[in-house]
Amino acid sequence: MDIFDLLFKYRKAVNIALGVIAVLFVSWIFAYEPVTRNFVAQDAVCNYCHLPWEFNSDERLTATKPHLAHPDDKTSQATCVDCHLPEGWWNTTYAYTHFLSVTDLFGHMRDRDSERAGDWIPPRAATAYRVRDRMFENDSNTCRTCHVEAEIKFTRERGVNAHKLAIKEKKTCIECHNNLVHRPVDVRANAFKKASPSDG
Amino acid sequence: MKRIALAIGIAVLLSGPAFAGDPAAVDWSKVPTKNIKLFWPGQSTYQWLRSPAHKRADLQTKEGQACVACHKGEEEEMGNKLIGGHDLEPMPIEGKNGVIDLKFQVAYDKQDAYFRFQWKTLNDYAGTAHPYYRFDGKEWKAYGYPKLDEVVQDGEQPGIYEDRMSMMIDDGSVPMYETQGCWLTCHDGERDSPNLPETADIKANALFAHLKKKDVRKYLPSTRTDENASWDMGKTPEEIAKIKAAGGFLDLMQWRGHRSNPVGMSDDFYVLEYRNSDAGKNPFGSNSNKETHTPKYMFDEKVFGKKSVTEADIRKMETTLIREKNAVPFDPNAGWKEGDMIPKYIVSREDSKGSAKDNDRSKGVWKDGVWTVVWARKLGLTNPDDKALKEGGVYSFGFATHDDNITTRGHHVSFPMTIGFGAKADIEATKLN
Known about the structure:
The complex is a heterodimer of chains A (200) and B (433). Chain A starts with a helix and ends in a 32-residue tail after the last helix. Chain A has one domain. Chain A is built from ten helices and no strands. Helices cover 53% and strands 0% of the residues of chain A. Chain B is of the alpha+beta class. Chain B folds into two domains: 226 residues, Immunoglobulin-like, CATH 2.60.40; 83 residues, no CATH class. In chain B, the strands form six sheets. In chain B, strands 6, 7, 8, 9, 20, 21, 22 and 23 form an eight-stranded mixed β-sheet that branches. Chains A and B meet through helix 10 of A and helix 3 and helix 4 of B.
C-alpha cells in the first residue's frame, strides 16, 4: 500500500490535520507580530545581549523607570521594540534576523567587560550621531510613532513653554530630547543644522 | 506786581517739581507696580546651564535661547525645589524660603531715573548687621559670617550679613544678557560655587595676578578665551580694555543694609573680567589695621553713647560705623572687655568719590517686616564704567536680593527683563512731570 492509499484510507484524519495546520498557520500569521513584540522581544531578552550598561538607567523610559508623563501607569512604558522594531509584519522578522551581528556576541564571550567599557564606546557614539541625524532629517518619526504632539499632557510649565516655542521654530523632538535612553553621548558640534545651499 | 509774578515764576522754574532728585518725594502711588518673583538659583552656573545636566536645554542655552523660553512662570516651583536640597544646592539652609515677591516701580524725569523696591524679609528684623571684630579678652577676631559659610553651617559662628538689593544693567552691548541675564556672570570657581580653585592657583593665574585678586567673582564670558568661559582662561588686559571701551560690560549696583543705607547711598560696580568697583571710591572700606591686627576706627562714645557694641545690640539698633558721624581712631587702651564688637567695615559718604559715588540718593526703610528702598540714578552718565540711562532707551535689567544673612550666590534672583524709558519694553518707566 503506497502513501496515497494510506492518505485516502485515513482521509478524514488527514483533512482534520490539514485543517488544524491551516488554522495554526493562519493564526501564526496573525499572531506573529504581537507575539514577537510582546512575548519574545521583551526588554529582558534584548538586554541579554545588549548589556544594561548601554543604557542610561537614570533616564531610561523603559521598565526600569515609569514614564515621566504617566508615573502611575506601568502599561504606558516604552520598551526596546517600541523604538527599535518598526511596525509591520515583515519588519517584525528583524527581531530574529538581527542576530546576523552574532560575531559581536563572540566578542562579549571572549572579553565581556572591557570590550563594552573601551573599544565599543567610539562606535556607539558614531551610531548615536548617525541615528540623531536620521531622526532630525525625518522629523523624529520614531518618537512620533507613539507621541502625538496635540495629545501630550504636560506635567510642568516648562514643557508647555518649550513645546510652544519648538512648534513656532519648527524644531523636532530629537533636538531637545536626546540622551534619554542609551549611554550618554555628547551632542556633537553643529548637530541639528539644516543643510543650506550656501554650505557648499 | 509784575516783579512779584516774575519772581514767583523764576522761583518755580528754578525749584522744579517737588520730588526733583529725591526718590522719596516721588508720588509712587501714581507709578504702576510690577510684581517680580525672585527665586533661589542654587549653583546654576553658566557652565552647568551649558552641560547635559541642564536637560533638554543645554544646546539651546548655548545658542542663546532665553531662560524664560522654557521657565516662564516657573520661578516659584524652581525656587522652592532648589532651596530644599538638590543637585544644584549642596548647602541647603534650614528654614530658608525659595521665593521672594518683589514689588518694583520705576519712573524718570529729565534728570534722573527713580526706582522703588519693596520685599518682605524672612526675619522679623532688618538686616542691618554685618560681620564684626570681637574682642575675646586678648585679640580682635572676626565674628559673624554669611550663612553659606561652613563655620556658620557647623555652628561655630553666627550667621550675620547685611540685606541687599542689586540691579544689573545692560544697554544691548553684552551678547545674550537680554536673554540669559545674570547667569552670564555666574561661573564655576566663583565663591560658594562648584569647582572652587585653590587660592594659590588663582594667584598664579596671569589675569588674577594682574588684577591682584585672590578669589574669583562675577565675570563675563567675553573676557575668557575658551568656549566654556573658564575662570582661569582670561584674555589679556589689553583685550579686556577693548571690550570695556566698546561698552561690553554690565553695570552692577547694590543697596546695602549696613554698608551704604546709613549714608543714603548704594554702591556702583561693573562686571567685566571681574566684579570691579567703578572709578573713585565706594561708600565703604575695610576697618582692619593689618599691621596691628586691630580695628582702624571705633565708635565715638560722645556721639554714639559707647565705643563698641555687643551681640545684644545688633539688629536692635543701627551699628554702622560712619567715619564722619560716629567714628574716632581706634584706641587700643580704651579698656576693652571680652565681647566688645566693632564693625569690620567703615562707611563714609564724604569719602566716596568719582564714578563709584553715582548712587548717592538711595534710602531703605524697614517696617513691619518689609524693606522699602527708593533709589535715584542720574540719566546720561558719561563715565566709562557706567551704562548711561537715557530717555528713549531700552535696557535689560536683572534684580537680586540677599536676604537672611547671606552673600555670594545666596541670593534670590530674577530672570532678565527690559525697562523702557519712554520706549516699549517689558516694564515702561512712568514719566514724571
